[in-house]
From TrEMBL:
Its main location: membrane. GO terms for molecular function: intracellularly calcium-gated chloride channel activity. It is a multi-pass membrane protein. Belongs to the anoctamin family. Residues 231-242 have a biased composition (Pro residues). GO terms for cellular component: plasma membrane. The lineage of its organism: Eukaryota, Metazoa, Chordata, Craniata, Vertebrata. Keywords: Membrane, Transmembrane, Transmembrane helix. This is Anoctamin. It is found in: Membrane.
Length: 296
């Protein structure tokens, strides 16, 4: 079962992709989500039946959609900041073209010249208060009409364009680096839970617990010391007949002296794991090497 997150994803897209154009969008989205959560809580408590809980590993394909949208929003905001604002042109003018290192003369630097005699037929303005105007100014980086390359992009235009593209690349890499740092500092799964998973998956290891539900920080490998509780250990052989129970491998049969005339049936029990881990006692030094026997 996949939960539909279409509406939250659409909201996240609008907020993240165009936050540079409307910086108050995250605030309005937060207020909308708070109100919607409280209304949904009241609806679930008072008007709907209790929903059936379903366990899910993650949010499915929506995680990849949100991740891709977040990366794409970084590029969009970088282009919006660099190409729709005067942030980059101001820096370029201050550090490359200003004689005093200040913003004095920035407006005049961003205006180009145009000769009114170069208007095409029918495109000149009709209402002109002063007929003696020969040159007007407009906002662009182009060569003046008296230049050999009139009305072409000037040197300042290419400098500003290069600075804008450099800002896009720098901004994108900086945000990606910060996101990696945050992801490294705040992992998706806490470190304690990862360690518990590793301890549970370690084969042949016993972890003694102190309090209930507590796993020690440095468990010892206790393969040789792992013994089942007393109630789960098989009964030890004795002089009497073997008791019937869960460790008997043969069904109950006639015993000696019964009416069937059969002898006592042998009783077998499951071998204990500790029998195969007992240490073999050392043999005497004066004993012949060929006469040694292996204890079973």
């Amino acid at each position: 079962m996949t939960v539909s997150l279409f509406s939250p994803v659409i909201q996240f897209g609008f907020v993240s992709l165009f936050v540079a154009s409307f910086p108050l969008a995250p605030l309005f989205a937060l207020l909308n989500n708070v109100i919607e959560i409280r209304l949904d809580a009241k609806k679930f408590v008072t008007e709907l039946r209790r929903p059936v809980a379903v366990r899910a590993k993650d949010i499915g394909i929506w995680y990849n959609i949100l991740s891709g949208m977040g990366k794409f929003s970084v590029i969009i905001n970088a282009f919006v900041i660099s190409f729709t604002s005067d942030f980059i042109p101001r820096l370029v003018y201050q550090y490359m073209f200003s004689e005093t290192g200040t913003m004095h003369g920035f407006i005049d630097h961003t205006l180009s010249y145009f000769n009114v005699s170069n208007f095409k037929h029918g495109t000149a303005p009709l209402n002109i208060e002063q007929a003696d105007i020969t040159v007007c100014r407009y906002k662009d980086y182009r060569e003046p009409p008296w230049s050999p390359d009139a009305y072409t992009f000037s040197k300042q235009y290419w400098c500003v364009l290069a600075a804008r593209l450099a800002f896009v690349i720098l901004f994108q890499n900086l945000v990606m680096f910060l996101s990696l740092v945050v992801a490294w500092g705040i992992p998706d799964v806490p470190k304690t839970i990862v360690e518990q998973f590793k301890r549970e998956e370690a084969p042949g290891r016993c972890f003694p617990t102190g309090r209930k539900g507590e796993i020690p920080a440095h468990p010892e490998p206790l393969l040789q010391g792992c013994h089942p509780p007393a109630e789960h250990q098989p009964p030890q052989p004795g002089p009497g007949p073997a008791p019937l129970g869960r460790y008997s491998t043969l069904p109950p049969g006639p015993t000696q002296g019964s009416g069937d005339g059969g002898g006592p049936r042998a009783r077998c029990r499951a071998a204990s794991f500790s029998q195969f881990t007992r240490s073999i006692p050392p043999s005497p030094k004066n004993e012949n090497e060929n006469s040694r026997h292996t204890a079973v």
